[in-house]
Amino acid sequence: MTIADTQNLPRGLTALANPTRFLALVRVVLPVLTIITIGLLAIGLWLGFSVPDDYQQGRTVRIMFVHVPSVWMAMGAYMVMVSGALGVLVWRHPLADVAARAAAPLGACFTFLGLATGSIWGRPMWGTWWVWDARLTSFLILFIIYLGLIALWNSMEEPAKSARIAAVAILVGAINIPIIKFSVDWFTTLHQPASVLRTDGPKLAPEFLYPLLTMGLAFLFLFLTLHLMAMRNEILRRQIRTLQRKAAREIRSANKAST
Amino acid sequence: MIALLKRDLKLSFRSGGGAAIALLFYFAVVVSMPFAIGPDPILLSTIGGATLWIGALLASLLGLERLFQSDAEDGSLDQMLISPTPLAAQVFTKSFVHWLVTGLPLTLMAPVFGLFLGMSQNALLASMATLAVGTPAISFIGAVGAAITVSLSRGGLLLSVLVMPMCIPVLIFGVGAVRAAVTEPDPFLPPFLLVAAISLFFAVIGPFASALALRQGAS
């Protein structure tokens, strides 16, 4: 065993200790979460389809039940990444990076879903697929930030280093989140202002509000399920890499011994 | 810090420094615009402010890749990391020099290039003013991107992808202020002050974020 091996081995094992417990936890929690997600999605969709047509928007109002929850989760996923980034920089926890990294593609998907459904909704309501108003633009920027971060992670080889550098980038990009949230209040936009998360209570009629909240909850659980799955995959991927490296080292030392 | 300022200024004016290249690039962008859009003077003067801003943004991004990379190559980045001067202060100096050799010349040349686009005198003055207060923001945001991508061998494209979204607010309000200066009822001052605010904000946040990224990348 070389010096490099003795240095790498215990560090690799301690890094695995916590994730192993995490994997055991995931094994128990994941089926439960999956069932809850499917149930909530079914109820939410049923409620969403059974609401009466809106007197102004007609049937298209139902797009809201997908659009609004996706947008919530798109921002929620970024907040998960921000807390992951803090976990990386402050506590140097290996799982924090895994959490941040696993949330990025999910967040990008939810952002895309939010943009796409918003566009489909905007066509009949505003008469256009896209307008360059503050809410839409800042949300498009969020999408670009997600893609940029994913590219940043993919362009660096070493996970430990890429984790810390990506964490800084995540924190800088977090400036965009409050801009998205308050863009409808700061600027005059075509997009309507917030109607659910308001200090004076929701402005939405109850027959629309409850299906929307159910769908929001369903999307939250969908995100949690997918996030845990992605984290599990990322941990397994890293374990495979460690094993591959170890195997490569063993082959090398065996070759050396034979010659 | 003064020594660092002098050193960086000297380096950027020597051959391969890129201060002149950024200006040339700016010129090329501005000149190619009428070819793409057509030589209609009314149309050109309406989009003049936007063209000047896009050109300035692209030209500033051009040199950013080398901001820390050349220091990382010759080892002076390690010297910066262990020096008693706070790293954020050094990054601030470097970003400031980057602005001095790209942002400032771009601002000064903007009215000349604006004449090609047939812009009115008000619009020329407005674009000069907004560029003067807006381009520092690009340098300070860009320094963060440069610090993040310094360890990558081909970080230039990724840097642009990371920095561009953060620069969009500067672009929006910068161009908005230029447009407001020409169209009568819109006030010029609010978007102009917003650009200045963004610059000041990133002048504070940027150096600390870049210093953090540089340290994390080095350890």
Structure, explained:
The complex is a heterodimer of chains A (259) and B (219). With 259 residues, chain A is mainly α. Chain A has one domain (3-258). Chain A is 81% helix and 0% strand. Chain A contains 7 helices and no strands. Chain A has helices at residues 3-50, 64-91, 94-126, 134-154, 159-173, 176-186, 206-258. Chain A is elongated and about 85 Å long. The two termini of chain A are 16 Å apart. Chain B is mainly α and 219 residues long. Chain B has one domain (2-214). Helix content of chain B is 84%, strand content 0%. Chain B has 10 helices and no strands. In chain B, helix 2 packs antiparallel against helix 4 (48-64), helix 4 (48-64) runs parallel beside helix 8 (121-148) and helix 8 packs antiparallel against helix 9 (156-182). Chain B starts with a helix and ends with a helix. The model of chain B has no long low-confidence stretch (mean pLDDT 82). The chains are: A mainly alpha (259), B mainly alpha (219). Chain A binds chain B through residues 89, 137, 141, 144-145, 147-148, 151-152, 155-156, 161, 164-165, 167-169, 171-173, 175-176, 179, and chain B through 144, 147-149, 151-152, 154-155, 158, 161-162, 164-166, 168-169, 172, 205, 209, 212-213, 216-217, 219.
Question: What general outline of chain B do the C-alpha atoms trace?
Answer: elongated
Order of helices and strands of chain B: HHHHHHHHHH
Q: Radius of gyration of chain A from the CA trace?
A: 22 Å
Radius of gyration of chain B: 18 Å
Q: In oligomeric terms, what are we looking at? A: heterodimer
Order of helices and strands of chain A: HHHHHHH
| Domain tally of chain B | 1
Overall form of chain A: elongated
Percent strand of chain A: under 5%
Q: Report the span from N to C terminus of chain A.
A: 16 Å
Helix share, percent of chain B: over 70%
Biggest contact? A-B, 23 and 24 residues
Unreliable spans of chain A? 1-17
**How many E strands of chain A?**
0
Count helical runs of chain A.
Answer: 7
Largest sheet of chain A, in brief, is: none
Largest sheet of chain B: none
Ends distance of chain B: 23 Å
Overall structural domain count of chain A: 1
